[in-house]
Amino acid sequence: MLGALYDALVAASRNTQVVVITQSADLLDNAAADPAHLLAVRDDGSGTVIGPIDDSGRRLLADGVLTLPELLRRGEMRPAAAPGQEQ
Prior knowledge:
Blueprint: H1 2-13, E1 40-43, E2 48-51, H2 55-62, H3 68-73
């Protein structure tokens, strides 16, 4: 069912803006899932940080070390620090 849901979300995004908030790694288990379309969210202790997947996570994905669902399940999906901020 999650594959069909993902496909429906992608189809809808062709006509309108779609925002999905989930903790489901299974939803990301789709060959069409594009890390460039995702934002990671994390509480850094002083507030919520939202941003694209950080360099470390992108390298793990690009090198084939982890898949998107594995990155999320292992807690390695972190947002990149905003320019001028440290993580």
